[in-house]
Design goal:
Radius of gyration: 34 Å
Number of strands: 5
Order of helices and strands: HEEEEEHH
Largest sheet: 5 strands, antiparallel
Length: about 150
């Protein structure tokens, strides 16, 4: 058995290393693909983005299907620039679909009628603490007064 590892141990180690590198590479590529798809979903008109040059702006138009077509980004009110679609480094603030009035359904429940009073900020023990200490200084130390 020892002779087997002496003769073939290095080859086995190299095979295990190659398998690990292959697995690690596939995992990293899958993770990057998910991040790219997430970025493509968030890159919609109205989203605030950071460009590779360090400029922040709001997307006016972007075509995720044709990355050769430039994206139009508004960097200031009324100032639109065309940038390569891959120059968008990341989406800073994704736009969230605003709920409409139809999405809200008014509901009433008994919990709406309950009034909860806030707890006092200072408890009674803490508020009376200094007054007790002024009246009998030996009571706080736990010692008996000497006669």
């Amino acid at each position: 058995m020892n002779e087997f590892f002496t003769n073939y141990g290095l080859i086995i180690l190299l095979v295990v290393l190659l398998v690990f590198m292959f697995w690690s590479s596939r995992r990293r590529m899958a993770k990057q693909k998910l991040e790219q798809e997430e970025r493509a979903r968030n890159t919609v008109p109205g989203a605030e983005v950071l460009l590779q040059g360090g400029l922040y702006g709001t997307i006016v138009s972007y075509d995720p299907e044709n990355l050769d077509q430039p994206a139009v980004v508004e960097i200031a009110p009324g100032v639109d620039i065309k940038v390569h679609s891959q120059a968008i480094l990341r989406v800073v603030t994704a736009t969230v679909e605003q709920p409409t009035e139809d999405d809200f359904v008014p509901t009433t429940s008994a919990a709406d009628d309950v009034v909860v009073e806030p707890a006092p900020l200072v408890s009674d023990d803490v508020a009376e603490g200094p007054a007790k200490a002024d009246s009998d200084p030996d009571s706080d130390s736990g010692t008996k007064p000497q006669a």
